[in-house]
């Protein structure tokens, strides 16, 4: 077994040894003795392999939606379920590649929450010719869309547990469309874990 020391600046803690599996270039003859050191070494190597971090990434395209907040959890899960099922523990990172829409986690049951959220956003971010915005190249909803996107953000991180997104009972992933004339929206989903 080889030990590797983490530099002392790592996470601000004292160095800790990490297990690293032996090179796979060796061939071992396993004795029939259950206490065989070679059997133990192979078992440790197999365990290390099963605990090795893995990654998966996919870009999901959400078709255009009318302006407002939309529950997209099931669409996202359909797109990533095969990769997601391979993770025992990890994180899912969702990144929206747009500046006039946003992602958030919110109520997944009562659609009135989506409507009320849109009403709230429209109340606090003025729109139209009387609004004070300079940036109106793409219409009067352009700058308000950028502000709303910054308010909710374009990224989410969700824990993965036993091949599933580990969200609360009433939580769902929302795509919030802030433009009157929407386009397809791309979400890059990166999975990392064991």
Automatic annotation (TrEMBL):
<protein>
    <submittedName>
        <fullName>Uncharacterized protein</fullName>
    </submittedName>
</protein>
<dbReference type="Pfam" id="PF01894">
    <property type="entry name" value="YjbQ"/>
</dbReference>
<dbReference type="InterPro" id="IPR035917">
    <property type="entry name" value="YjbQ-like_sf"/>
</dbReference>
<dbReference type="InterPro" id="IPR001602">
    <property type="entry name" value="UPF0047_YjbQ-like"/>
</dbReference>
């Amino acid at each position: 077994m080889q030990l590797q020391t983490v530099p002392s600046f790592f996470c601000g803690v004292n160095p800790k040894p990490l297990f690293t599996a032996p090179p796979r270039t060796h061939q071992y003859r396993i004795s029939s003795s259950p206490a065989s050191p070679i059997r133990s070494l192979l078992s440790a190597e197999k365990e290390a392999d099963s605990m090795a971090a893995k990654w998966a990434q996919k870009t999901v395209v959400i078709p255009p939606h009318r302006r407002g907040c939309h529950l997209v959890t099931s669409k996202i899960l359909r797109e990533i379920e095969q990769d997601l099922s391979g993770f025992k523990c990890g994180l899912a990172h969702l990144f929206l590649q747009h500046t006039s829409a946003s992602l958030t986690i919110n109520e997944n049951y009562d659609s009135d929450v989506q409507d009320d959220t849109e009403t709230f956003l429209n109340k606090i971010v003025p729109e139209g010719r009387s609004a004070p915005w300079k940036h109106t190249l793409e219409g009067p909803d352009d700058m308000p869309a950028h502000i709303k996107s910054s308010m909710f953000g374009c990224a989410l991180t969700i824990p993965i547990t036993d091949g599933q997104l580990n969200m609360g009972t009433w939580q769902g992933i929302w795509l919030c469309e802030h433009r009157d004339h929407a386009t397809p929206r791309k979400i890059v989903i990166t999975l990392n874990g064991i």
